[in-house]
Amino acid sequence: MALKKRKHPKFNVPNYGTKKRGRVKERWRKQRGIDSKKRVKKNFAGAEPTIGYGNPAEIRGVRASGKRLLMVQNVNDMKNALMMPDIANFDIMIAHAVSRRKRVLMMEIAKKGNVHVTNGIRKQGSMQQKQTRTEMAGNAPGATPTAAAPDKKIEPHAQGQEAKKEPVKK
């Protein structure tokens, strides 16, 4: 029999269910007030997170797909993860701070290793599309001087030449 995660009630702060619900966010904070009924564990105040709601150790940290999550922060981590013997039991998550260029490289490595990456790049060809757009902008009429072809000489503005004169000394 496969183990399933246990269900538990929603753990909310007291007074979440009142008519002025907009003032109280749906979240949990431990009650520390001296008169708090929830701290004293009165039944009407609602459930409080306790150790009894924990899941069995075998399924703690397991995702809905049945796999665990492994975070990688750079290309070397990705390569080392693919060398793990039980990598088929893991989904890979790329760290938030990884740049788009490295993320593309890591996605290619993961694709070769047949590993699922949870937070890859949404559009695979977007880097190539961006490059083609900048190339097309250089050929377009009225393009900015930075995108112009390198063989064209860019003339400075007349006002810019006047501004380069030496300041008057007093």
Describe this entry's structure for a reader:
This protein is mainly alpha-helical and 170 residues long. Among the domains are: 8-54, no CATH class; 61-126. 24% of the residues lie in helices and 6% in strands. The protein has helices spanning 75-82, 100-112, 126-139, 158-163, and strands at residues 68-72, 90-94. It has a two-stranded parallel sheet. Strand 1, helix 1 (75-82) and strand 2 form a beta-alpha-beta unit. The longest helix is centred in the last third of the chain and has 14 residues, at 126-139. The protein is flat and about 80 Å long. It starts with 67 loop residues before the first strand and ends in a 7-residue tail after the last helix.
Shape: flat
Radius of gyration, whole Å: 30 Å
Whole-number mean pLDDT: 80
For this structure, the quaternary state is: single chain
Characterize the biggest β-sheet: 2 strands, parallel
Low-confidence runs of at least 5 consecutive residues:
none
List how many beta strands DSSP finds: 2
Instruction: For the record, give the distance between the C-alpha atoms at the N and C termini, rounded to a whole number.
Output: 93 Å
What structural class should be given to the helix and strand makeup?
Answer: mainly alpha
What's the arrangement of strands in the largest beta sheet?
A: 1-2
